TrEMBL record:
Component of the dolichol-phosphate mannose (DPM) synthase complex. InterPro entries: DPM1-like, Glyco_trans_2-like, Nucleotide-diphossugar_trans. Pathway: Protein modification; protein glycosylation. It comes from Ostreococcus tauri. It is found in: Endoplasmic reticulum. This is Dolichol-phosphate mannosyltransferase subunit 1.
Length: 251
């Protein structure tokens, strides 16, 4: 059973940042400070940002670091929810969504591959155009990837190309996970999704477009992790391909 700490507050909350973690002890403290600095720079008149960390029983003590951060910064808007094990990336997002109190939901990785300074760009575009989804893209002018070798770049490009050919999603980057949603739009998408792993990213954006939701894109630079190990392995790639085929026939 999952348990959450850090819930009681009367502060108006506009944005919930959901961050799934597994063995991110070395990164989560830096990410926390960068999110708070980005919040200060954005100066959101609608309310505060809460951060929901969904940790899948990290053996490296990631949850302990989050608890210490919450105490050290006296931050009731840093929420930790601990799950009993690795239950899948898609389910981590769904779990964090159940705890979210903001009307805008930002989802990002914990490994510093996504810079929180871009959150302000996501919110600005979403609010200006009243979009349901804003997706970060590495493949439009102004976006890019830093630190990947040729194999990783080829894998990512190939995965996105296959998805564009088979599903015609109308978005340039289907495998990225840095996004901003209207809360009610994400609730609808999560309820209709059948994916648990990395294919969740692709399914969500495809379902958004197919259902007529409004989707915008913001160029981002993805930076390969400096600490820890990538969670993307052969099983995730196979799962992605299976999910691609499933969605081709389902949608």
């Amino acid at each position: 059973m999952a348990r959450a700490t850090g819930r009681s507050t009367t502060t108006a909350i506009s944005v919930t940042v959901i961050v799934p973690t597994y063995e991110e002890r070395e990164n989560i403290g830096v990410l926390y400070r960068l999110i708070r600095e980005s919040e200060d720079a954005f100066a959101d008149a609608r309310g505060k940002w809460e951060i929901v960390i969904v940790d899948d029983n990290s053996p490296d003590g990631t949850a302990d670091v989050v608890r210490r951060l919450r105490a050290a910064y006296d931050d009731p808007l840093l929420i930790l929810s601990e799950r009993p094990g690795k239950l899948g990336l898609g389910t981590a997002y769904a779990h964090g969504l159940k705890l979210a109190r903001g009307e805008e939901i930002v989802i990002m990785d914990a490994d510093l591959s996504h810079h929180p300074r871009d959150i302000g760009k996501f919110l600005k575009l979403r609010r200006e155009r009243d979009l349901d989804v804003v997706s970060g893209t590495r493949y439009l002018p102004g976006g890019g990837v830093h630190g990947w070798d040729f194999r990783r770049k080829l894998t990512s490009r190939g995965a996105n190309y296959l998805a564009r050919v088979m599903l015609a999603p109308g978005a340039s980057d289907l495998t990225g996970s840095f996004r901003c949603y209207k809360k009610n739009a994400l609730e609808t998408l999560v309820a209709s999704s059948g994916s648990k792993g990395y294919v969740f990213q692709m399914e969500i954006i495809v379902r958004a477009k197919k259902s007529g939701m409004s989707v915008g894109e913001v160029p981002i630079t993805f930076v390969d992790r400096m600490y820890g190990e990538s969670k993307l392995g052969a099983s995730e790639i196979v799962g992605y391909l299976k999910g691609l085929v499933r969605l081709f026939f389902e949608l």
